[in-house]
Design a protein that fits this description.
heterodimer; A: three-stranded antiparallel beta sheet; 18 helices; extended; B: 17 helices; flat
C-alpha cells in the first residue's frame, strides 16, 4: 500500500519471510478487531433476545400457578338445615369449615391457632362459597365433596416468593405475619398447594378486589374473532388485488398510483390506522365501539399491504411457461391464472397470510384508539355478539393489566405475554412447515 | 341481526342462480353441453354474479349513506334556539343517538312495547330512569326535543332499514331475472363473467387507494376542525403541552414542540443503539459468517422483529426501567428518579430496530458486486480494509436509506413509548428524564370518554397528521434513495 520508490529508508528485513512485519501485524490486528466487532454485535443481539425471553419466562410462569386449598368436606343434612335456618347463614358454614379444618390439622399433628378472621384473610369468604355450592348442588349434601378454594393474592405471592413477611406493613388489614405461619402449616399438612391455574386461561378480567382471579380467556376469544374478520376479508381482497396487479394490470398511471399507495401504506405507523378506524368506522359509519368487528376491519387494512406484497412475490415465482402452456391448450387468461398459477402460488400465499395474521395478532396501538381496552368481565353471549359486542384482545388486555398498579396484575400481564407468544410461535411454525412442505423451486 | 340475514338471503339466491343458470344453458341446447358457447358453469357464474354484484354494491352504499342522511335530517330538525350555550349541534346529536339506542334496547328487552316508546313524552315518563334500568346511563335529564328527535331518528332508521331490504332484494331479483332470461347457448357467458371478475379484481386493488383516502379524510377533516377551535401558530410553535381535563378548551396549552422533541430524542437514542449493532451484525453476517453461523444468527435476529411491540413495552416498563434505576438511581449516582425515561424507551426501541437495520443493510451489502471486492483484494487489502474502504462507501446510500426507514419506524412506534417513556411533556436534554412523544399523546388524548368535539380530543388528529406527514416523508425519501442505489448496480 505504500509507495515503494518514496521509502528508500526501509531497513533490510532480517529473519524469515513468514514473520509478519510490524505494519502487517497491525493490519492483521485491525482485521481481527473488525471481526470481533461483528461478533460482538451478533452476541449483543442474542443477549438481548435471551434477556427478553428470561424476563418473560421468569415473570410470566408464576401467573399459571395458583395456591389453592384442597379439602374434602362433608356436610350432613342436619348441618345444612341448621345453617339455613340461622340468622348469619354464611357464618355457620364458616364455623363448620373451621371445625373440619382444625380436625384435619390435628390428624396431621400440627398445632396452630387460627380464627375466622384469619381464614377470611387467607381464603376470602369461605362460608359464602360453600353455601353457594350446596344450594346449587343439593345432591352433594351428606357426601364428601372436594373443595378447591383459591388463596388470597398475598398468600399466593408468598408461595411464589414475591411477597415476604418484611413486606407486611404496620396495621395491614389484608394479612398479618401470623397468617403466613398458618399458611406454612397448611402447606406442611399438604392442604394448601400450588396447582396449575386453569382459570387464568379460561377466565375473564376481574376488578382489583379479586386480582388473582383474572383470566385472559375472554380476550383470547376477542383476538380470535378479530383474526376471523381479518382472514375472511384480507385473504380474498389481498389475493384479488395481487392477481390484478401482477397478471392483468396495464402499465399506466393508475396502476402506478395503486402500487405507490400499497408501498406507502406498508410504512404508515399502526396508530394512524387506529385513527382511521376511529374516524371512519366509528365516528362516520357508526359501527359499535370496542367491537372485534371494527378491530378486525382496522387490522385488515393494516395487514393488506403485507399480504399483497408476499402474494405478488409468490405469483411472480410461478414460471411463465405454466401460463403459456395453459394458454396454448385454449384456456383464457383468467382460466390460466385461476386454474394453474393460483394453485401453484397458494403455499406461498398462505405462508404470507399467516405471517400477516401473526403481525396483526400482536398489534396493540390501533386497538387502544377504537376502545378495545375497556373492562370486559364476561364472555359474549351469542356468536354474533362476539363480533359486535364490546370485547378486548390479548395485547390490549396485557396493556390494560400492565397499566394497573397491583403486582398481581403485572404478573398476569407477563403470563398473558407467554400465551400471546405461544400463539405467535405456533402460527410462525405453521408457516415454516407449510413452506417446507409445499414450496417448489423451478 | 337483520343485515346478516339479508346477506345470507342474497347468497342463497346467488347459489340458486348458479344452479338455475347452468341448467337453463344446458337445456337450451337440448341437454347437450357441447354446443354451448362457454362451459356450462360460466352460465351459472353469470347469474350468480348478476345477483350478488348489484345487491351487495347497493347494500354497502346504503349502509354508509343511511346514517349520514338520517343524522343530517334529524339534526336539521333541532331548532337553533334549543341548543344552549356551551353546547353544539354534534353534542346534542350524540345525545339523540344515545337516547335512540337506549329506546331500542328498551324495546328489545321487552321493557316497553314499540308503540309505548313512540308515544313516550318527557312530561309523563321519566325517560332517564327507564333507560337507566336497561343500562343506558345518561348524564342529565332528557329535554323534550331530544326525545322527539330520538323518536324521529328511530322512525327514520326503521323506514330506512325496511327500504334497504326492499331495494337490495329487488336488485338481487332483477339481476337474477335479467341474467337468467339472457342465458342461452349463444350467450357469450365466459367473456361476460371474466369481464365481471376483472372489475372485481380492480375493485380489490382500489382498496389500497380507498384506505389512503380514508386516512387523509379522517386526519384532515378533524385537523381542520381542531384549527377552528385552536390557534394554528400556538399549536406548531407552542413550547408547552398542558391539556386541561375539563374538556372545555380555553385553559389548554397544546404546543407540539415538546412532543416532537421527545419523539426525536427517543428515536435518536434508539438509532444510537440499533445502527452500530445492526450494521456490524449485517457486515459480519454477509462478509465473514460461515453458512452455518448465518443460518442460525439471521433467524435469531429476525425473532426480535417478530416479537410484538407490547412485549417490548412491558419489558421496558417492568425490567429495563427498574434495572436502569438501580444503576443510575438515587442509591448510586442519583441521575434517574423513575423507571420511565427517554433512555429506557430508547434502549428498548433500539433493540426492536436491530433486526430491521441488519436485514436491510444485509440486502444492500450483498448487492455490492463481487468484482469490487475482488479488485480490492487484488491490490492487497485485507478483508476489513476492503469492507471499510470499498464495500461500505459503495453501499452507503442504501445504508442511509435503511437508517431513515428505521427512523421512521422509531417515530411511529407507540406501545414502547406509551409504557416506557413516561407522560410528562418536557423540553429537556437529560436522557434520564421522562418525556413523551407524539404517538403516546395520541393514545392518551383519544382513549377515555372525551367527546370528539373538544380541542383536547381533536388535537390527537392534528398530531396524527404531523406524524403521518413526517413518517411518509421519511419513507418516500428513503425508498427513493434505496431504489436509486439499487439501479446503480443492476
Amino acid at each position: 500500500m505504500t509507495d515503494a520508490t518514496a521509502a528508500p529508508a526501509e531497513p533490510v528485513r532480517k529473519g524469515s519471510l513468514t514473520d509478519a512485519d510490524t505494519r502487517t501485524a497491525a493490519r492483521n490486528r485491525a482485521e481481527k478487531r473488525f471481526q470481533y466487532y461483528g461478533i460482538a454485535a451478533i452476541v449483543a443481539g442474542a443477549l438481548f433476545l435471551v434477556l427478553l425471553l428470561t424476563a418473560i419466562l421468569s415473570n410470566g410462569i408464576p401467573a399459571f400457578k395458583r395456591a389453592t386449598l384442597n379439602i374434602d368436606f362433608t356436610l350432613t343434612q342436619e348441618q345444612f338445615d341448621e345453617a339455613e335456618s340461622a340468622m348469619l347463614k354464611t357464618r355457620v358454614y364458616t364455623d363448620y369449615f373451621i371445625a373440619d379444618l382444625s380436625q384435619r390439622l390435628e390428624e396431621s399433628g400440627i398445632e396452630i391457632e387460627f380464627n375466622d378472621k384469619g381464614i377470611e384473610r387467607l381464603l376470602g369468604k369461605v362460608g359464602g362459597t360453600i353455601r353457594a355450592h350446596y344450594r346449587e348442588n343439593p345432591q352433594d349434601i351428606g357426601e364428601p365433596t372436594r373443595f378447591q378454594l383459591a388463596a388470597s393474592s398475598r398468600v399466593d405471592r408468598y408461595f411464589k416468593g414475591t411477597f415476604d413477611r418484611d413486606d407486611i406493613g404496620e396495621g395491614n388489614r389484608f394479612i398479618m405475619p401470623g397468617d403466613l405461619d398458618f399458611a406454612d402449616a397448611l402447606r406442611d399438612a399438604g392442604i394448601l398447594t400450588q396447582s396449575f391455574d386453569w382459570n387464568f386461561i379460561t377466565g375473564v378480567d376481574t376488578g382489583v378486589d379479586n386480582a388473582g382471579g383474572a383470566g385472559i380467556g375472554a380476550s383470547v376469544l376477542g383476538s380470535f374473532m378479530m383474526m376471523i374478520v381479518v382472514l375472511v376479508l384480507s385473504l380474498p381482497i389481498g389475493v384479488a388485488a395481487s392477481i390484478y396487479l401482477e397478471e392483468f394490470a396495464p402499465k399506466n398511471r393508475f396502476t402506478d398510483l395503486i402500487e405507490v399507495n400499497i408501498s406507502n401504506l406498508a410504512a404508515v405507523p399502526s396508530i394512524v390506522f387506529g385513527i382511521l378506524g376511529l374516524a371512519v368506522f366509528i365516528q362516520f359509519m357508526g359501527l359499535p365501539q370496542s367491537a372485534p368487528l371494527v378491530g378486525g376491519l382496522v387490522l385488515t387494512l393494516m395487514t393488506l399491504p403485507t399480504i399483497i406484497i408476499s402474494t405478488r412475490a409468490s405469483l411472480k415465482a410461478v414460471p411463465p411457461s405454466i401460463r403459456e402452456a395453459a394458454l396454448g391448450v385454449g384456456a383464457s387468461k383468467m382460466q390460466a391464472v385461476f386454474h394453474h398459477v393460483l394453485p401453484l402460488a397458494m403455499p406461498g400465499i398462505l405462508t404470507g397470510t399467516i405471517i400477516g395474521l401473526a403481525q396483526a395478532l400482536g398489534e396493540t396501538a390501533p386497538l387502544l384508539l377504537i376502545g378495545m381496552v375497556g373492562f370486559v368481565a364476561r364472555y359474549p353471549e351469542t356468536f354474533m355478539q362476539g363480533f359486535e359486542g364490546p370485547n378486548s384482545a390479548m395485547p390490549a388486555q396485557i396493556y390494560n393489566w400492565a397499566a394497573r398498579s397491583d403486582a398481581v396484575f403485572t404478573e398476569k400481564a407477563w403470563g398473558g405475554i407467554i400465551i400471546l407468544l405461544i400463539f405467535l410461535l405456533s402460527m410462525n411454525i405453521l408457516a415454516i412447515l407449510l413452506r417446507r412442505r409445499f414450496e417448489r423451486r423451478w | 341481526m337483520p343485515v346478516y340475514w339479508l346477506i345470507l338471503i342474497v347468497l342463497a339466491l346467488a347459489a340458486i342462480g348458479y344452479v338455475a343458470g347452468r341448467a337453463r344453458a344446458i337445456a337450451s341446447n337440448g341437454g347437450d353441453p357441447r354446443g354451448l358457447h362457454s362451459l356450462p358453469s360460466f352460465y351459472g357464474y353469470n347469474v350468480a354474479l348478476s345477483v350478488m354484484t348489484p345487491a351487495f354494491g347497493l347494500l354497502i352504499v346504503w349502509l354508509i349513506a343511511q346514517p349520514i342522511f338520517i343524522d343530517m335530517s334529524v339534526s336539521g330538525q333541532i331548532p337553533d334556539s334549543a341548543i344552549s350555550d356551551g353546547q353544539n349541534r354534534s353534542l346534542v346529536m350524540s345525545d339523540v343517538r344515545r337516547v335512540a339506542e337506549g329506546l331500542d334496547i328498551l324495546v328489545s328487552e321487552g321493557g316497553m312495547t314499540r308503540e309505548a316508546v313512540d308515544g313516550m313524552r318527557t312530561d309523563f315518563t321519566n325517560v332517564r330512569e327507564r333507560l337507566g334500568e336497561v343500562g343506558v346511563a345518561l348524564g342529565s335529564n332528557i329535554q323534550s326535543f331530544v326525545l322527539a328527535a330520538a323518536q324521529d331518528y328511530r322512525a327514520m332508521a326503521r323506514t330506512g332499514t325496511f327500504a334497504m331490504w326492499a331495494a337490495v332484494l329487488l336488485a338481487a331479483i332483477v339481476g337474477f331475472g335479467v341474467s337468467y332470461t339472457k342465458t342461452h347457448k349463444t350467450f357469450r357467458a365466459r367473456n361476460t363473467v371474466e369481464q365481471g371478475i376483472t372489475l372485481l379484481l380492480i375493485g380489490a386493488a382500489c382498496i389500497a387507494i380507498l384506505t389512503t383516502i380514508g386516512i387523509l379524510f379522517s386526519l384532515i377533516f378533524n385537523t381542520f376542525e381542531f384549527f377552528r377551535l385552536y390557534n394554528i401558530t400556538d399549536f406548531f410553535f407552542g413550547t408547552v403541552w398542558n391539556p386541561s381535563f375539563s374538556g372545555r378548551g380555553g385553559a389548554s396549552e397544546l404546543g407540539i414542540l415538546p412532543l416532537l422533541w421527545g419523539t426525536f430524542y427517543i428515536s435518536l437514542v434508539a438509532l444510537l443503539v440499533a445502527v452500530p449493532i445492526g450494521l456490524f451484525a449485517a457486515i459480519y453476517l454477509s462478509e465473514y459468517a460461515t453458512p452455518r453461523v448465518r443460518s442460525i444468527a439471521k433467524p435469531m435476529l429476525e425473532v426480535l422483529a417478530g416479537i410484538p411491540t407490547i412485549v417490548y413495552g412491558l419489558f421496558a416498563l417492568l425490567t429495563v426501567g427498574p434495572f436502569l434505576v438501580s444503576v443510575f438511581g438515587k442509591d448510586t449516582v442519583g441521575w434517574m428518579s423513575g423507571g420511565t425515561a427517554v433512555i429506557t424507551a430508547g434502549l428498548v426501541m433500539g433493540v426492536m430496530l436491530i433486526p430491521f437495520v441488519s436485514s436491510l443493510s444485509d440486502d444492500i451489502i450483498n448487492a455490492v458486486p463481487q468484482a469490487m471486492r475482488d479488485g480490492s483484494y487484488g491490490l492487497g487489502a485485507t478483508q476489513s480494509e476492503t469492507i471499510r474502504q470499498v464495500v461500505l462507501p459503495a453501499a452507503l446510500p442504501g445504508i442511509v436509506g435503511a437508517i431513515l426507514l428505521a427512523a421512521s419506524r422509531a417515530i411511529g412506534e407507540t406501545m414502547i413509548v406509551v409504557l416506557g417513556a413516561g407522560a410528562a411533556a418536557k423540553l429537556s436534554l437529560n436522557p434520564f428524564e421522562a418525556m413523551t412523544t407524539v404517538t403516546a399523546k395520541i393514545v392518551s388524548q383519544l382513549t377515555g370518554d372525551s367527546d370528539f368535539a373538544s380541542p383536547e380530543a381533536l388535537v390527537a388528529f392534528a398530531l396524527g397528521t404531523a406524524l403521518f406527514v413526517i413518517t411518509l416523508g421519511l419513507n418516500v425519501f428513503a425508498l427513493y434513495i434505496v431504489r436509486k442505489y439499487r439501479e446503480q448496480y443492476e
